[in-house]
Write a structure and sequence with these properties.
- Among the domains are: 153 residues, no CATH class; 105 residues, Sandwich (Immunoglobulin-like), CATH 2.60.40.10.
- The chain is 41% helix and 19% strand.
- Strands 8, 9, 10, 12 and 14 form a 5-stranded antiparallel beta sheet that branches. Strands 13-11-15-16 form a 4-stranded antiparallel beta sheet, with no helix packed on it. It has a 3-stranded antiparallel beta sheet with strand order 3-4-5, with no helix packed on it.
- α5 runs antiparallel to α7, α5 crosses α9 and α7 crosses α9.
- The longest helix has 26 residues.
- GO terms for molecular function: 4 iron, 4 sulfur cluster binding; metal ion binding.
- This is Cytochrome c oxidase accessory protein FixG.
Length: 470
């Protein structure tokens, strides 16, 4: 008779359904309050940016606003400097420098710009703080969402949206105040005398701030901002990103503080999901790098607080590189980063040089529509219109002349007095003193020299037209 194998009753356990993050669930993202190093850094940076944005608009420089882009007058004031549309090449250069700077920062430390300095992120954090003040912390807001409408819910929601609109209006006024004098703008708004153009832009930027920071939030970073799409192309194995150390954290699971989790086969992660609850884009950093991650470090602060309570070493979630997580050491001096740094230094140098040699007087020459005429002395004469611009903020005297005049003589007003920022149109004539020109069209070079500073001199080319045979 064969030996029987004893049977055992095995209890089957239904697998737990996968836990969806707020981003995966598609509902509203309610973040939890937290404290920590990176939150403090973000608050300090945001405070500095707020002071710069809101405070600079109210500064005066002499008898005018210190920073003002006066579109009507086509003059752009930045403290003691005045820029004109002709100087827009400098603005283009500055934008290129900023782009390279962003690329360099991304290669070195991922999306820290998004997490700490991007206006979308900064204003979203402000709006989330307003939510906490008016509706309570995370669990209270979740309960309020699920609750039916009542007087309390209406009051809390009204307070939240009222403060959102107030922040949006102040933001819009500050922004529009860089293009029209802010003191007059605020006065006209509160006295209901605001012109239609200014009113439109104040309303537009109020609505844009309210919609972006109040309603769209992470959707702007995830779906609308192109930066999140190409950031991965700029990362390399040494780029610092917010990372979960799975080798240390797995297997995750709850436990008591006094339990020897290593003996129990558990990693350092207690699966508290606090890192998910504080994330402004609603992702789980333990799933790896995702395009929704803005590198704000909120999950690092949350995880470090749990590690402290459990008595574990900090850094389960930290800024780290792919190479470091694999057991290597992050390399800082690498070709791509060094290349960006070198390009930035060269561009900063070139930009500084361009600012220092920027001519503070502008000369434009336009020839009169007529080809030529004969004056009372029988000389062939051409008429020109000269536009002279004083780009400084002081009155200056200028002298007009011809460079290497040869057989040509300048006639008309040759010394000018221009007020600060004045544009003056001057009509002058040039006569041919020779009996015959070398050709029907000869080059002329007009020059304007600052009589108060003879080192300031600009020139502009044109042509002199005359008959070959007379």
């Amino acid at each position: 008779m064969s030996e029987r194998i004893p049977a055992q009753i095995v209890e089957t356990v239904e697998p737990r359904p996968p836990r969806l993050t707020p981003a995966q669930a598609g509902g509203a993202i309610h973040t939890r309050s937290f404290t920590g190093l990176f939150r403090n850094l973000r608050l300090g940076g945001a405070g500095a940016l707020f002071l710069l944005f809101f405070g600079t608009a109210w500064l005066n420089w002499g008898d005018r606003q210190a920073v003002l882009w006066d579109l009507a007058e086509h003059q752009f004031y930045i403290f003691g400097a005045t820029f004109w549309p002709q100087d827009f090449i400098l603005l283009s250069a500055l934008l290129i420098i900023c782009a390279f700077g962003l690329f360099a920062i991304t290669v070195a430390a991922g999306r820290v710009w998004c997490g700490y300095a991007c206006p979308q992120s900064v204003w979203t954090w402000v709006f989330m703080w307003v939510e906490k003040v008016t509706e309570g912390d995370r669990q209270q807001r979740i309960k309020l969402d699920a609750a039916s409408w009542s007087a309390e819910k209406l009051a809390r929601r009204s307070a939240k949206h009222g403060l959102w609109l107030a922040v949006s209006l102040v933001t819009a006024l500050a922004f529009v105040g860089y293009f029209t004098p802010i003191r007059a703008l605020v006065h006209d708004l509160f006295t209901l005398q605001l012109d239609s153009t200014s009113a439109f832009w104040v309303f537009f930027f109020t609505a844009a701030t309210y919609g972006n920071a109040g309603w769209l939030r992470e959707k702007v970073c995830r779906d609308m901002c192109p930066y999140s799409r190409f950031q991965s192309v700029m990362f390399d194995a040494d780029t610092l990103i917010v990372s979960y150390d799975s080798a240390r954290g797995e297997s995750r699971g709850p436990r008591r503080k006094e339990v020897d989790h290593q003996a129990a086969g558990l990693g350092d992660c207690i699966d508290c999901t606090l890192c998910v609850q504080v994330c402004p884009t609603g992702i789980d950093i333990r799933d790896g790098l995702q395009l929704e991650c803005i590198g704000c470090g909120a999950c690092i602060d949350a995880c470090d607080s749990i590690m402290d309570k459990m008595g574990y070493e900090r850094g389960l979630v930290r800024y780290s590189s792919e190479r470091e997580l694999a057991g290597g050491k992050t390399r800082w001096l690498r070709p791509r980063l060094v290349g960006y740094a070198a390009a930035l230094l060269l561009m900063f140098g070139a930009f500084g040089w361009a600012l220092s040699v920027r001519p503070m007087v502008q000369l434009d020459v336009a020839k009169d529509r007529g080809l030529f005429r004969e004056n009372s002395e029988g000389q062939i004469e051409n008429i020109y219109r000269l536009k002279v611009i004083n780009k400084t903020q002081q009155p200056h005297r200028y002298a007009i002349s011809l460079v290497e005049p040869g057989p040509f003589v300048l006639q008309g007003e040759q010394e000018l007095q221009l007020a600060p920022g004045e544009i003056l149109d001057v009509a002058v004539s040039v006569a041919l003193t020779a009996e015959r020109a070398a050709s029907s069209s000869e080059p002329l070079l007009f020059a304007v020299m600052d009589l108060d500073d003879e080192q300031v001199r600009v020139s502009a080319r044109t042509t002199f037209v005359s008959p070959v045979n007379r």
